[in-house]
């Protein structure tokens, strides 16, 4: 009996093949659902009915397959994750928060954490990575170095029995969609890092997995290409019947691609909510700063919030004495003056301009102070010119109490 070679468990993509996968149709790969007929290029499942020679298979519409995600993760990363079919979850958090560990636990590729995993009605916990129906695009892409872009992309389809012509057609379609079709016959060492990442993304998307895991898939792309690939990915995810987890540090990706944002810190979930809710009420200083806001964690007292980095902040609302909270201040709510302001602002601090950077048609001014934590203000170039701002210039900043959002921690 012919026996299918087993993939290297260190890679969910089965790097045990040393030949073009179009010549090795039985090699396993973790990019197509196990125990299901292989998909064709248009995402339909192959018909496996045995027929007499010359009898054509009937053409019938196939409804979209849907796979609900249910996972119980323990170890360094500990959380319960439930998601309906078609859900995209952005996973965010500082370095070391456990984001990549979560993805690798769902794949069964790390001893740091273990995931009890159900996809649809199937428990795949005990299965090896290449039999879980999970596609993974790691940060380095993990392309097979000895295969062309076309062969890399066709790998998952061929490994699950799709014909050579069908697999290559599907692979070329995805390469074209992601703007790298002209690189179909190049090896990974012959393309740029951004191009390699798009090829890796095409390989994952071509095989129609039940669960799609993307670890910063757009990080290596330039601004224009990133927007184009993001649009293509969004269109695909709109029709995807599984669940997608995407690790990102880009707030635009989190807002434009995700239905939910999962915030991790030290392996625990701090927040799991819609992008709009996370933007309004971030429960992590890191997330607030990722979204471009000032974030001051502190403790409430009788005279307002006492930031952990010193100073005092008056706010419109109140919390019980001793309550931990996060004060969030939008940069555009920070006023900059050359003289101490009078009038309504209740929060006024003396400071020094530390840095001025451009953000589109506006400027972001970083101001340090001995009286309060660092503060970022967003102003127009005209205002900066009128104030004669420059690095090292002494300034005053003010924030109205009503402009401060307080999030209990």
TrEMBL record:
Matching SMART domains: AAA
PROSITE patterns assigned: ABC_TRANSPORTER_1, ABC_TRANSPORTER_2, MOP
Chain spans, region Disordered: 1-55
Domain ABC transporter: from-to ranges: 50-291
Keywords: ATP-binding, Molybdenum, Nucleotide-binding, Transport
Domain named Mop: residues: 342-408
Signal peptide as annotated in the record: none
One of the record's GO molecular function terms: ATP binding
Ranges of Basic and acidic residues composition bias in the record: 1-13
Pfam families per the UniProt record, alphabetical: ABC_tran, TOBE
TM segment ranges: none
Record SUPFAM superfamilies: MOP-like, P-loop containing nucleoside triphosphate hydrolases
Biased composition (Low complexity): 18-41
PANTHER family attached to this UniProt entry: SPERMIDINE/PUTRESCINE IMPORT ATP-BINDING PROTEIN POTA, SPERMIDINE_PUTRESCINE IMPORT ATP-BINDING PROTEIN POTA
The protein's name in its UniProt record: ABC transporter ATP-binding protein
């Amino acid at each position: 009996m012919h026996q299918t070679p087993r993939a290297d468990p260190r890679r969910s993509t089965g790097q045990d093949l040393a030949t073009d996968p179009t010549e090795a149709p039985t090699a396993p790969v973790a990019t197509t659902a196990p125990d299901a007929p292989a998909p064709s290029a248009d995402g339909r499942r192959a018909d496996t009915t045995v027929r007499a020679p010359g009898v054509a298979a009937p053409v019938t519409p196939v409804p979209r397959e849907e796979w609900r995600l249910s996972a119980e993760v323990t170890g360094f990363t500990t959380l319960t994750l439930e998601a309906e079919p078609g859900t995209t979850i952005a996973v965010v958090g500082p370095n070391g928060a456990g984001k990549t560990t979560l993805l690798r636990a769902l794949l069964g590729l790390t001893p740091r954490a273990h995931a009890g995993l159900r996809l649809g009605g199937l428990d795949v916990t005990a299965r090896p990575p290449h039999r879980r129906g999970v596609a993974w695009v790691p940060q380095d892409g993990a392309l097979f170095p000895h295969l062309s872009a076309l062969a890399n992309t066709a790998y998952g389809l061929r490994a699950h029995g799709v014909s050579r012509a069908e697999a290559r057609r599907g692979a070329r379609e995805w390469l074209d969609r992601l703007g790298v079709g002209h690189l179909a016959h190049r090896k990974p060492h012959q393309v740029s890092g951004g191009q390699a990442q798009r090829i890796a993304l095409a390989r994952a998307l071509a095989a129609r997995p039940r669960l799609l895991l993307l670890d910063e898939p757009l990080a290596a792309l330039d601004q224009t290409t990133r927007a184009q690939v993001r649009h293509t990915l969004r269109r695909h995810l709109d029709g995807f019947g599984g669940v997608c987890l995407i690790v990102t540090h880009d707030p635009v990706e989190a807002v434009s691609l995700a239905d939910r944002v999962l915030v991790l810190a030290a392996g625990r979930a701090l927040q799991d909510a819609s992008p709009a809710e996370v933007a309004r009420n971030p429960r992590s200083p890191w997330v607030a700063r990722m979204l471009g806001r000032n974030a001051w964690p502190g403790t409430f007292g009788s005279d307002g919030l006492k930031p952990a980095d010193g100073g005092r902040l008056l706010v419109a609302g109140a919390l019980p004495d001793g309550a931990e909270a996060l004060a969030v201040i939008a940069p555009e709510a920070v006023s900059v003056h050359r003289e101490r302001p009078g009038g309504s602002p209740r929060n006024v601090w003396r400071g020094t301009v530390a840095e001025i950077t451009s953000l589109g048609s506006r400027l972001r001014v970083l101001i340090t102070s001995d009286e309060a934590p660092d503060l970022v203000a967003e102003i127009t170039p005209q205002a900066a010119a009128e104030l004669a701002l420059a690095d090292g210039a002494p300034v005053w900043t003010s924030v109205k109490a009503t402009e401060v959002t307080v999030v209990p921690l």
